[in-house]
Design brief:
8 helices; LYPA1-2/EST-like; Alpha/Beta hydrolase protein; AB_hydrolase_fold; palmitoyl-(protein) hydrolase activity; about 250 residues; seven-stranded mixed β-sheet; alpha/beta; globular
């Protein structure tokens, strides 16, 4: 299990929460952090502007071999054979996803300690393959988190029960019950015109997590491609964060 390097946007107000935001396949933490700050609302504010007490943590995935391109190693949380159909040779996803989820859990624990042990102050988020990894991290943690946000995501190993989905990765320290999943609010956003992760993939994330007992808020947008919708998507994310994560902060 690797210790992940991270890029940080430090809070500009007293630190109250942390969002751990995972980049997509082929991207880097540094590039994604820069791109994240370009996601703006109608008043040209990014999420870091809207939530100044948040520590934004962008972990860097490992360079992993790509089975379909044997000469290449790429920045990815796990390998896939066909991004259009994760069911094809889906066993290729297991090793990388298991390693990545284990590493993200360590990062979550580190951020929870920074916040005095308050796991409900830590939010997981991810774009594309990062969203898939964040979703699998949620179902393999023992304590409620502040929230999960998945953008343009996919759900590896769908159509299984919660227990069977956990069994695919077979991680240590996974609870037997579903309390963390049921009590962690979830936001899933997806653009209908996404050419890489089709809208059906986002709906599969929604449906899978809902079947595990999660309370999922779903938002789909006609445009935005394989990315965030602007400005409506950022407005909806901001509203969701205020309602579910910062509800006791007087924001």
């Amino acid at each position: 299990m690797a210790t992940l390097s991270t890029c940080i946007i430090a809070p500009t107000a007293p630190h109250t929460h942390t969002v751990i935001f995972l980049h997509g396949r082929g991207d880097t933490a540094s590039n994604f952090m820069t791109s994240f700050q370009e996601w703006r609302d109608s008043e040209s504010r990014c999420l870091a502007d809207l939530f100044p007490s948040v520590r934004w943590v962008f972990p860097q995935s490992e360079l992993r071999a790509a089975a379909r391109f044997p000469a290449a190693r790429m920045s990815q949380w796990f390998d896939t054979w066909n991004i259009a159909n994760l069911h094809e040779k889906e066993e290729l996803q297991i090793d990388g996803l298991k390693e990545s989820v284990a590493s993200i859990r360590v990062l979550v624990d580190k951020e929870v300690r920074k916040l005095g042990g308050q796991s409900e102050k830590v939010v997981l988020a991810g774009l594309s393959q990062g969203g898939a990894t964040a979703a699998h991290t949620l179902i393999n943690v023992a304590k409620r988190l502040g929230g999960l946000m998945v953008f343009s995501g996919r759900m590896p190993f769908p159509g299984r029960t919660l227990a069977d989905t956990r069994a695919v990765l077979d991680l240590a320290g996974v609870p037997d019950d579903d309390s963390a999943v049921r009590t962690t609010p979830v936001l899933v956003q997806h653009c209908v015109d996404d050419p890489l992760s089709r809208i059906k993939n986002g709906r599969e994330v929604r449906d899978s997590l809902s079947s595990f007992g999660a309370q999922v808020e779903w938002r789909e947008y006609p445009t935005g491609g394989h990315w965030f919708n602007s400005p409506d998507g950022i407005q909806d994310a901001s509203t969701w964060l205020r309602a579910h994560v910062f509800q006791d902060e007087g924001r």
